Amino acid sequence: MINLKTADIISAIIGLLLSAYVWIASASFPQDVVMKIGPDFFPRIIAVAMTIASLFLLVQTLTNKTPEEAVQTLNLKDAGILRALAFLILAVVYVSVMDFLGFIIATIICLLVGMYILKFRNLKNMVLVSLGTAMGVYFAFASILGIQLPSGLLAMFF
Predict the structure, then answer these.
(1) How many whole angstroms separate alpha carbon 26 and alpha carbon 39?
(2) What average pLDDT score do residues 28-45 get?
(3) What is the pLDDT of residue 81?
C-alpha cells in the first residue's frame, strides 16, 4: 500500500523530469528551412503542457492540508492499477520493437493487446480497428505529412 500523497509527489517529479528530457531531446531535431515551425515544435508544446500539469499536481499535493490518517492509500493489486502497469509495459515493448517489426505490425499488435487488456473481446472488431488505425495513420504520415515511419519487416513492400 502506497500513500496517494506520496504517489502524487513521485508522479509530479517524474512528469517534470520527463518533460525536461523531451525539451532537451527535441533541441537536437533538425531545423526546417522552409517553415519556422520545425519538428521540435509539437514535442516542446507537450513538454510545456506536461511541466504545467506536473507543477500543478505538485503544488496541489504539497498545499493540501488533509490529515495523514485521512489520506487514501494506493493498492498495487487493484485491477485498475494492474491494467495501467500492463499498459506501461505494453508501451515500452511497443517502442522497443517498432524499428524491427515496423510501425504497422507493431501498432496492430499493440492495439490488439491493448484492447484485450481493456477487456474488449470482439475479435472481428479488434482486428478491423487495429488494421484500420495502423494503416490509416501510416499512410497519413507517409502521404499527407511526408514523414517516414519505420517499415521494419514490411520494408520490401513500402
Answers:
(1) 8
(2) 78
(3) 83
Counted residue by residue, the chain has a size of 158
What are the distances in angstroms from CA 5 to CA 1, 10, 56, 75, 92?
12, 9, 14, 13, 26
pLDDT score for 80: 84
Q: What single-letter DSSP state applies at residue 149?
A: P
Q: What is the C-alpha separation between 117 and 120, in angstroms, rounded?
A: 8
Distance (Å, rounded) from C-alpha 131 to C-alpha 115? 13
Nearest to 148 by CA among 22, 38, 139: 139
Beta strands 73-74 and 2-3, pairing class: antiparallel
Paired with 3 in beta bridges are 73
User: For 29, which DSSP code?
Assistant: S
Indicate whether 70 pLDDT > 60: no
Q: What amino acid is encoded at 147 in this protein?
A: I
Q: CB of 117 within 8 A of CB of 124?
A: no
What's the one-letter identity of residue 91?
A
Distance CA 18, CA 10 (A): 12
pLDDT-based confidence at residue 68 (cuts at 50, 70, 90): low
In the chain, count H helices and then E strands.
5, 2
pLDDT of residue 141: 85
pTM value?
0.62
